[in-house]
Specification:
- Strand 12 and strand 13 form a beta hairpin.
- 29% of the residues lie in helices and 32% in strands.
- The strands form 3 sheets. The protein has a 6-stranded mixed beta sheet with strand order 9-8-10-11-12-13, sandwiched between helices. Strands 5-6-3-4-7 form a 5-stranded mixed beta sheet. A two-stranded antiparallel sheet has the order 1-2.
- The C terminus is likely disordered.
- It folds into 2 domains: 92 residues, Ubiquitin-like (UB roll); 138 residues, Cytidine Deaminase, domain 2 (3-Layer(aba) Sandwich).
- The protein is built from 10 helices and 13 strands.
- The chain is of the alpha/beta class.
Length: 274
């Protein structure tokens, strides 16, 4: 059995000059096998919550499907070594999958999803729309509120979160996972159930901004990616190419814009702080 998102384990804690026998809450991770139309496609290591959101978000962000309605059915089952998601997708989409080349095993820290060639790894999504203008205060308020939508991380200190800031600067939704890109896929899946693509809005992440985060955001049309930590050089390049506003170090009243920072307007900043 996979257990829940959190598991209590025995531990020995050293504090205040003494050892103490205790139990501690640790984040669970388990293998998730993704099987499309009867054929194995991927095994990812995930936190075993919001699995259906992850399946839909992963299918969209990895280009398995182009629209949510192309995912016809998902059956989740517990297997001896983890979880298996049997996913039925539209026949026309299934025919485009190169299953033999794309069978993979994805670790928690892996964002390339087992791609075997540079062309598979370095996709080039179309540029996103330019419909947003947002204030720095909205980004910082959103990052501050995001911590309140992380109950699993509050107990374990081991999970990343991806949050959704709508075009009006309201933090509406968040998802957690031990993998930062998994948290994003869960968020994309949750959003895609109720909103048409492209998504617009801003993505807030409690991690560094690596290239696969920006790439996944571009695939579904997210215009702003705001990270609590640093971006990578490749993330900056992908953001430039896809016209995504890429923000790093969004904490303690500051931020650094690395690409297309003009979506953050000084006059909006002044109005927000007035």
């Amino acid at each position: 059995m996979t257990g829940g998102a959190i598991i209590e384990v025995p531990a020995v804690r050293w504090a205040d000059g003494r050892l103490q026998q205790t139990c501690d809450a640790v984040a669970n991770e388990t293998g998730l096998a993704l099987v499309y139309n009867g054929q194995p496609f991927a095994v990812m290591m995930v936190t075993p919550v919001d699995i259906e959101d992850f399946v839909l978000g992963f299918s969209l962000s990895e280009g398995v499907i182009a629209r949510p309605d192309e995912l016809l059915r998902t059956r989740i089952g517990i297997v001896p070594d983890g979880i298996e998601a049997n996913v039925e997708i539209a026949a026309r989409r299934y025919r485009t999958l190169d299953l033999k080349e794309r069978m993979l095993s994805g670790r928690v820290g892996c964002g390339l999803c087992g791609a075997q060639t540079l062309a598979q790894a370095m996709r080039h999504p179309a540029p996103v729309a330019r419909s947003l203008a947002i204030s720095s205060s909205a980004l910082h308020d959103g990052m501050a509120w995001l911590s309140r939508l992380q109950p699993l991380n509050a107990r374990t200190g081991a999970l990343h979160a991806a949050g959704w800031l709508d075009p009006h600067g309201r933090l509406l939704l968040a998802r957690e996972d031990v993998g930062r890109h998994n948290a994003l896929d869960k968020l994309i899946g949750a959003l895609a159930r109720t909103r048409p693509l492209p998504l617009g809005g801003s993505l807030l992440i409690t991690s560094r901004a690596s290239h696969e985060i920006v790439q996944k955001a571009a695939v579904v049309g997210i215009e702003i990616v705001c990270a609590i930590s640093a971006p990578t050089a490749l993330a900056v390049r992908v953001a430039e190419e896809t016209r995504i506003t890429l923000v790093g170090f969004a904490r303690e009243g500051r931020y650094t814009a690395y690409a297309h920072g003009d979506r953050i307007h000084p006059q909006l900043m002044e109005r927000a702080s007035a």
